[in-house]
Write a structure and sequence with these properties.
single chain, 500 residues, alpha+beta, 2-methylcitrate dehydratase PrpD, 60s Ribosomal Protein L30, Chain: A, 4-stranded mixed β-sheet, 20 helices, globular, MmgE_PrpD_C
């Protein structure tokens, strides 16, 4: 890897385009380096993973709204919308499928200087690949780039410190991945990256306080913007430049300002793209930093015994966990039984309480209103708090995979004064966890979440197609769409009319 120093430059400075971060990323995207077999295998795993969570979310209102919007833009020879026949314009398929993937907070993640869900790149690339008749091999190449760029930006540039939403890294990553997939030249990719970043920078209020369904829509918006940016760039349109380093650019006014230098790692020319191997998926439908606490709660419940005897629970954890999903957020909504599902999945206090009581976690039952309103749950929930522990913060930011951690230490104090203490560094499903996810687990997750939504024959057809996607010829990517039985889709909520 090469480390690129990125800082603000004045318009009067001699700062050639060849030195812009967008150029460096575009050159990586245009590099014809082969995709390593392990990267290809993980790309396939994540396409399966996205299909799994899309099946689980297909009847939810936000997903239904996005699907209805997309279906209002039909296009012969276009792209598929998850679950249904027919094709629509690619950017609208990217939109609808992006919402389906993100709605349940249940797919892959990478955490470093910033948060991210790199699987959000997949809907945009698949949609464009379907519409333009791209081969399966080129789709895999494009996704390897999208993951690489996304992960490298997340390693190098913190957004949330300045209350900028993490999809600001997704837009440029998706644009770069599309550039690779379509075999575009570096200049075209450069302009697409600049446009995509310019139009996907927004505040992170979507993940603060009372969280709404926009949390699922924001990444889908970034994917749709990236598709449109690439289209314009292919037609010769330029972009704000230099988008990161400019005097009125992203770093100067949205991030750490003209005095700060960011260090962004990117592969050297000819270096294979392996960043997807640094990412990890979720066994549980909840914000990633609650994955290990769920497993910890399940492990501790027998040691604790009678939960009514608990006086307090303090979760010692990283700064990120404390301020994003813990009591350090100072969000009273995180203790409100009437809060939205999106808010509850960003409350580690609620999640730890339910996991302690139930010994399991379910993407629907654990968030059901009647579950959140159980008096014994509310009582336990409000006994739980978080504190930042510098050691957990250090491990969160560690670059050593063997010690990087997203977990917590739980200190349970009983009414008798006895304390029960346990900790878990990484979730069971993490690559270094007790039960790491491999192809078998991705397939099991798909079949479990597709049960009752997608018939068994269609499940098997999809799994066969996706596992052989590298051999798919031009026009064959439509096989990656999963059809949902119409009787199931008929159960979706009725959506009021809009503009489209």
């Amino acid at each position: 890897m090469q480390i690129h120093e990125v800082r603000t430059r004045r318009s009067a400075d001699d700062f050639p385009r060849s030195q812009h971060l967008a150029t460096k990323i575009a050159e990586i995207a245009a590099d014809p380096v082969a995709v390593p077999p392990e990267t290809e295998a993980m790309v396939i795993n994540r396409i399966i993973d996205n299909a799994a969570v899309s099946a689980a979310s297909v009847l939810r209102r936000p997903v239904t709204v996005a699907r209805v919007q997309a279906l209002a833009h039909p296009r012969a020879g276009g792209a598929s919308v998850f679950g249904v026949d027919g094709t629509v314009s690619a950017e609208w398929a990217a939109w609808a499928n992006g919402v389906a993937v993100r709605e349940l907070d249940f797919h892959d993640t990478f955490l470093a200087a910033e948060y991210s869900h790199p699987g959000d790149n997949i809907p945009a690339l698949v949609a464009v690949g379907q519409q333009l008749g791209v081969s399966g091999a080129d789709l895999i190449r494009g996704l390897a780039t999208a993951y690489e760029v996304h992960v490298d930006l997340v390693k190098g540039i913190c957004l949330h410190e300045h209350k900028i939403d993490h999809v600001a890294h997704l837009g440029p990553a998706a644009a770069a991945g599309l550039g690779t997939m379509l075999r575009l030249d570096p200049d075209t990719i450069y302009d697409a990256i600049g446009q995509a970043l310019h139009l996907t920078t927004a505040t992170r209020q979507s993940r603060k306080g009372l969280i709404s369904s926009w949390k699922a829509y924001a990444p889908a918006w970034a994917g749709k913007v990236a598709v449109e940016a690439v289209d314009r760039a292919m037609r010769g349109e330029g972009s704000p430049a230099p988008i990161w380093e400019g005097e009125d650019g992203v770093i100067a006014w949205l991030l750490s300002g003209p005095e700060h230098t960011y260090q962004v790692p990117l592969p050297a020319p000819g270096e294979p793209k392996r960043a997807i191997l640094d990412t990890y998926t979720k066994e549980h439908s909840a914000e990633y930093q609650s994955q290990a606490p769920i497993d910890l709660a399940r492990r501790m419940r027998e040691r604790i015994g009678d939960l009514d005897q608990i006086a307090s629970i303090v979760l010692h954890t990283s700064h990120h966990t404390h301020v994003v999903i813990g009591t350090g957020s100072n969000d009273p909504q995180k203790f409100d039984p009437d809060a939205s599902r999106e808010t509850l999945d960003h409350s580690v206090m609620y999640i730890f309480a339910v996991a302690l009581q139930d010994g399991t976690w379910h993407h629907e039952r654990s968030y059901a209103p009647e579950r959140a309103h159980r008096p014994d749950t509310i009582e336990l929930w409000r006994k739980i708090s978080t504190v930042e522990d510098p050691e957990w913060t250090r491990r969160y930011h560690s670059t050593d995979p063997a010690e990087k951690a997203f977990g917590a230490k739980a200190v349970v104090t009983l009414k008798s004064g006895e304390t029960i203490v346990d900790e878990l560094a990484v979730a069971d499903a993490h690559p270094l966890g007790a039960r790491p996810f491999a192809r078998e687990q991705y397939i099991a997750k798909f079949t479990e979440l597709a049960d009752g939504v997608v018939d068994v024959e269609e499940q098997q057809r999809f799994l066969g197609a996706v596992q052989d996607v590298s051999a798919a010829g031009p026009g064959d990517l439509s096989a990656l769409n999963v059809r949902v039985d119409q009787l199931v889709l008929d159960k979706a909520p009725t959506i009021p009319g809009g503009i489209f």
